[in-house]
Fold each of these.
Amino acid sequence: GAVVSQHPSRVICKSGTSVKIECRSLDFQATTMFWYRQFPKQSLMLMATSNEGSKATYEQGVEKDKFLINHASLTLSTLTVTSAHPEDSSFYICSAPLAGFEQYFGPGTRLTVT
Amino acid sequence: TQLLEQSPQFLSIQEGENLTVYCNSSSVFSSLQWYRQEPGEGPVLLVTVVTGGEVKKLKRLTFQFGDARKDSSLHITAAQPGDTGLYLCAGARGTSYGKLTFGQGTILTVHP
């Protein structure tokens, strides 16, 4: 069964608005979670590392003021896309480590900005 | 930025054939994972390999990690239409197990 959930699965928002995506670890605690982005017909690209109790760390080229990450608890991380633009339309996926090396991914959130 | 070169990008075969997908890099990885992803869904973990030279089998799938931990392969025996999907390799360096670098992916289509 799924070990990581995401909500919502799909969201459509207007340009200039903000949208929040939730990532939850199910039945286990995750002090660290990861956010990836996937454009159509492309692979996953790491955006940032979400750390419980401290600031997120962002990969080079990812705007931290645009993609706000909050690790609210040991089972929840949120990604807020602020002032969304059509080019932010993408498939956003989070992951969390369950045991050592293994990363389990959520089902993803399809964001469409109109 | 380390790169993972995955090949082939597209593979179209008939049911019953064998196939191999390759994942190569000039960098050393502490672990390498293979995922399968269906359209509109997140990647699902198939296997993790950690030790150089390691071979893992999962039914008709065989995964190998290179001796130098720079490359990996996925071999599928007697492919079935249900194997159709996107296969991704992803590597982690050092102790940053969650910071994965993904290959470009291989879209496999198995025709009945």
Amino acid sequence: GEDVEQSLFLSVREGDSSVINCTYTDSSSTYLYWYKQEPGAGLQLLTYIFSNMDMKQDQRLTVLLNKKDKHLSLRIADTQTGDSAIYFCAETDTGRRALTFGSGTRLQVQP
Amino acid sequence: EAGVTQSPTHLIKTSGQQATLRCSPISGHTSVYWYQQALGLGLQFLLWYDEGEERNRGNFPPRFSGRQFPNYSSELNVNALELEDSALYLCASSSTYGEKGEKLFFGSGTQLSVL
């Protein structure tokens, strides 16, 4: 079955760049997503990328996709304390099944 | 525009009881997804409804069930509650057959505590 893996924790200093990594197993994954969950809240869609793309940039966020290695990363430039949250990677395919999520990476930003 | 709304925010039950959780999708969205977020386990897919029909189901026992109403709102029912059902239950909605993949929009969840 599909599996999505992420490291559990990342700590960075304010102003530095953060890189959150994700690997997935399903070679038919077509759409890959990054969601953010702040304490006590639901998930907020940050950005997404199609499998035929290598990179997508959206303001401070850069998504890199290595389809050969099934590796996805999210880079947050100039990380702020407000970026502290849990970040989830998710994937799905063109069959429109529900998204499969990773276990989430907790990002801690130190002032 | 109102987002996905879930009720209640918190629910406390005892083992063996039944719980009913409710979700209203974003206006115009016809698909509703339910996920369970147990402590330390990430998001586990429960159920997907689209146009009133159950389209897919995750690896959960039959005591987890639900339905989608004609107005596209949804209920999740959990029968014979067990302690390990304690979790945050998240509802998400999306529009039908989005051309750019399924972008799910989540509610804030219902925190279910089973004592």
